[in-house]
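In response to reviewer comment 3 from the previous cycle, which asked for concrete evidence that the modeling workflow produces usable outputs, we include below a single protein chain processed end to end. The sequence was submitted unchanged, and the resulting structure tokens are shown without manual editing.
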Amino acid sequence: MILTVTPNPSLDRTYEVPSLDRGEVVRATGDRMDPGGKGVNVSRAVAAAGVRTVAVLPLGGAPGALVAQLLDEQGIEAAPVPVAGQTRSNIAVAEPDGTLTKINAPGPELSDAEQESLLATVGERSVGAEWIACCGSLPRGLEPSWYADLVARAHAAGARIALDTSGPALLAALAERPDVVKPNAEELAEAVGRPLATVGDAVKAAEELRERGARAVLASLGADGQLLVDASGTYFASAPVDAVRSNVGAGDSSLAGFLIAGGTGPAALASAVAHGAAAVQLPGSAMPSPSDLAPDAVTLTAEPPLNRPLTEPAS
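The workflow returned the following structure tokens.
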């Protein structure tokens, strides 16, 4: 079982449009509504693979009730923590060329009692979990140290932690030695305080996060592929993508693929890349099923192309 923790979940609405013209009436050619938040997306991808998952998340108001309903309809076991504020609603607008415009609401502010209830629920539901995936931004009311506290508690209970967050929350948690962290290129650049122009720059930044406490770093480099830096070495993998339809949740799908495959080593990296490549070719924040994957298309090496410029340099 893989437990996910999403402190700031959302109700995600995605619209596909011919073009996004500011100030004009734009008619959508397609739309979908999904339960959202990075941990929720990980649970959705894990469930699509036929693996049991439990999603712990604070929910409030009508949007929260709809998130719970959508999770149930997708066969995902939820462990909701009731909160007074309303769960946020996010909007994404996808254009045919792959351009994605997102509007993310801030979400509710959690009281001290709600924060503690969230931590307690994680502890109660993590019994028997192979991994705990802690994902996404922190809602108002939670200090950057909240994830660090969660990692410490989980390790004390014998669980392995995968952490996908950024900024001060990521830096604070490194001291508690999360088993794997999953930044994208921009988050990796922010964490080390310098721009990343090449694959080699990303490798050095990942190594620095390991020196600060992360046991492994799974870094998404967008169209260029993904890196895994752990105690056994450094690995780089990529896969061809015919056309990008939406990149919403692609990184979350990658983390799910990594954890499904055991969460360690090059085989797990290959699974992560296969899941991410499949996700970007699906609409909205749809998560890939096994039939969407093309594992044979993944190229993996223990000798990353260090001098290769990143398609999208991170600053």
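The longest strand covers residues 10-16. We consider this sufficient to address the reviewer's concern, and the full set will be provided in the supplementary archive.
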